[in-house]
Design brief:
Layout: E1 3-7, E2 13-17, E3 20-21, H1 23-36, E4 42-49, E5 54-55, H2 59-73, E6 78-85, H3 88-100, E7 106-111, H4 114-127
Helix pairs in contact: 1-2
Length: about 130
């Protein structure tokens, strides 16, 4: 499994990233999430980087990813994006994305466990009047 996505009945999208990923994989994942949420102004997603996750991306392309992520998630009026990463390097990269995201409507955070990410998303959904 490289990427698997599942939309829960609550509307939460659960995404698992595993194995080795390239720049094209990342761009494909952004395109897919846009297609999954077409017509919606909000997004609630937990992205889990499994223990076997790794990135095979040149430094130049890696530097361009935050801008691509920002332009994708900048189209939503509200929501929450939670990254779950156990590997220190991936956790650090996700923290960089968290700091670079500039959309007041979509909140971003990084966690070490899915349980904490789910709790945080549920709290934001309840503030937005969404089911938990």
């Amino acid at each position: 499994m490289k990427i698997s996505r599942y939309r829960e009945p609550s509307g939460l999208i659960l995404t698992h990233f595993g194995k080795r990923h390239t720049y094209d994989d990342a761009i494909g994942a952004l395109t897919e999430i846009t297609e999954m949420t077409e017509g919606s102004s909000e997004i609630y997603e937990i992205i889990i980087h499994d223990d076997d996750f790794s990135i095979d991306v040149s430094e130049d392309r890696l530097k361009s990813l935050p801008g691509k992520v920002q332009s994708t998630f900048g189209t939503y009026a509200r929501g929450a994006l939670a990254f779950v990463a156990n590997i220190d390097l991936v956790f650090g990269l996700c923290r960089q994305l968290e700091m670079l995201m500039e959309n007041a409507g979509v909140q971003v955070a990084v966690f070490r466990s899915e349980a904490l990410a789910r709790s945080w998303i549920a709290e934001i959904q309840s503030l937005h009047g969404q089911p938990k």
